[in-house]
Specification:
- The chain is about 40% helix and about 10% strand.
- It is α+β, with helices and mostly antiparallel strands and about 400 residues long.
- It folds into two domains: about 130 residues, Beta-Lactamase; about 150 residues, Beta-lactamase.
- Helix 2 packs parallel to helix 12 and helix 3 packs across helix 8.
- The longest helix is centred in the N-terminal third of the chain and has 26 residues.
Length: about 400
C-alpha cells in the first residue's frame, strides 16, 4: 500500500498558526496509522490456540488425522477452528499453507454469497424471473416452465431441468442454458445443476456491471485477507461461478467462520445476517432416490448453494473432497482439501473421529506437552499418498 498516493489537501502552512499545524500533522499521522492498522487487520491470519485451551484433547485430533491419512484416498489439507481460533492444521506434502487449491463446487457457496450481497444492494430480488435478465438470449418459443424460473430456483437447484445443460467453449453459455428443456415446474424438483450456478454469476454481472470475482474482491476477499483469489471466466467473460475458484485452506476456514458468525467480521457486517441463515437452512428436500437417507450427507436438505449435513452441520463442498464444514452447536469450522473418490467416507471420518472430541464439556483442558509434541511430529511428516484405484 502506497500511503503517499492518498490525495491529502494542500495547505498554505504560512497562514496556519504553529499550534494548528502541529495538530494537523498529528491528525494526519493518526490517519496513516489507522489505515495501516486496518490493512494489517484485514490481512491477518486467524488467531492460533492449543487444542486444550479450546476444550479439545490433542490426542483426539491426532487420532482424526491418522484415520484420515489411512482411510481417505487421498488427503491434501486440514484445518480446525474452534471458538474463532485455529487449533489444528496440517498439509500433506507437497501441499502447503500458501498453496492455493482448486475448490471445484465449493466455489458455488462463494457465488451464493455474491448473490446475497447483490440482493441486499437492491440489484435484484430472489423472485425475479431468470428470463427478465436475458431477453435477447431467450429461445423463440420459451416454455411456461422456463418463463416461471426464478433466481431462487437457480439457488436451490430446482430450476426444473432433468439433465444439465452442456457448456462448450464455442457457444454462448447463457443462451445454451435457456435453450435446455425444462420438464419440471421450477421449485418442485431437486437436480444438482452446475450451469444454474453459472447463471447466478451471469445475473450478478448483468445487474452490477462486475463479474462475481471483481464484485467479491472488495466486499469479501479483501476484508477476509484472502490474497489473490483466482477464478476463471466463461468465453463471454462471466466468472464460472459453479467451479474454478482457487484459494488457500485458511481462506476456506475464514469463509466458514464468517458464516458461523452470521456475516460479521472484525466488527463489520460483510454479509447480511439474514442471508447467512437462509442460505444455510434447508430450503428444499434432496433425499429422493437415496436408499438410506439417514446415513447420507447428501439427503439432509439443500439451501442456497450450501448443503445441510447430519449432526446439525452445514457445508459447502466440491468434487474430490473439498469441504467447508460449519458446526454451529460446537462453535467450530473444519476446512479440508483432498483428492478422493469417496466423499461420504471422508465426512464419516470427521463424524466418527473428530466430532466426538468437540462435544461435551466446553471449557479449557490441562495442556498436554507430550501429546502436543506427538501431534506436531505427525503433521510435520505427512505426505500425499499415491492415489490407489477404487
Amino acid at each position: 500500500m502506497r500511503l503517499w498516493l492518498i490525495p491529502f489537501p494542500t495547505f498554505q502552512m504560512k497562514t496556519i498558526p504553529s499550534s494548528t499545524s502541529s495538530r494537523l500533522l498529528r491528525a494526519l499521522a493518526l490517519l496513516g496509522c489507522g489505515l495501516l492498522s486496518g490493512l494489517a487487520s484485514a490481512q491477518a491470519p486467524l488467531p492460533r490456540s492449543s487444542p486444550e485451551a479450546q476444550g479439545i484433547p490433542s490426542a483426539k485430533i491426532r487420532g482424526f488425522i491418522e484415520a484420515a491419512d489411512r482411510e481417505v484416498n487421498t488427503m491434501h489439507s486440514f484445518m480446525l477452528v474452534r471458538h474463532g481460533k485455529v487449533v489444528a492444521e496440517a498439509w500433506w506434502a507437497p501441499e502447503s499453507a500458501e498453496k492455493p487449491h482448486q475448490l471445484w463446487s465449493l466455489s458455488k457457496s462463494f457465488t451464493s454469497t455474491a448473490v446475497g450481497m447483490a440482493v441486499n444492494d437492491g440489484k435484484f430480488k430472489l423472485d425475479d424471473k431468470v428470463l427478465s435478465f436475458f431477453p435477447d438470449e431467450a429461445p423463440a418459443e420459451a416454455s411456461e416452465n422456463l418463463k416461471a424460473m426464478t433466481v431462487k430456483d437457480l439457488l436451490t437447484m430446482t430450476a426444473g431441468h432433468e439433465t444439465e445443460a452442456k457448456f462448450v467453449p464455442d457457444t454462448a453459455w447463457v443462451k445454451t442454458f435457456l435453450a435446455q428443456p425444462v420438464p419440471f415446474a421450477p421449485g418442485t424438483h431437486f437436480q444438482y445443476n452446475t450451469p444454474a450456478t453459472h447463471m447466478l454469476s451471469a445475473i450478478v454481472r448483468k445487474t452490477t456491471g462486475e463479474t462475481v470475482l471483481d464484485y467479491l474482491k472488495p466486499r469479501l476477499f479483501e476484508p477476509l485477507g484472502i490474497k489473490d483469489p483466482q477464478w476463471a471466466a466463461s468465453p463471454q467473460g462471466n466468472t464460472l461461478g459453479g467451479w474454478g475458484l482457487f484459494v488457500r485452506t485458511e481462506d476456506i476456514a475464514k469463509f466458514g467462520e464468517l458464516y458461523l458468525r452470521k456475516g460479521m467480521w472484525n466488527g463489520k457486517q460483510l454479509i447480511p445476517a439474514e442471508w447467512t441463515v437462509q442460505a444455510t437452512a434447508k430450503q428444499v428436500p434432496n433425499h429422493e432416490g437415496k436408499t438410506d437417507p439417514d446415513k447420507s450427507d447428501w439427503a439432509q436438505g439443500y439451501g442456497y448453494q450450501f448443503w445441510r449435513c447430519r449432526h446439525g452441520a452445514y457445508r459447502g463442498d466440491g468434487k474430490d473432497g473439498q469441504y467447508c464444514i460449519v458446526l454451529p452447536a460446537e462453535d467450530a469450522v473444519i476446512a479440508i482439501t483432498a483428492d478422493t473418490g469417496d466423499m461420504q467416507k471422508e465426512l464419516n471420518v470427521v463424524w466418527d473421529h473428530l466430532l466426538p472430541a468437540l462435544q461435551g464439556k466446553d471449557g479449557k483442558l490441562p495442556e498436554n506437552a507430550e501429546e502436543a509434541a506427538k501431534l506436531k511430529a505427525l503433521t510435520a511428516g505427512l505426505k500425499v499418498r499415491e492415489k490407489s484405484k477404487p
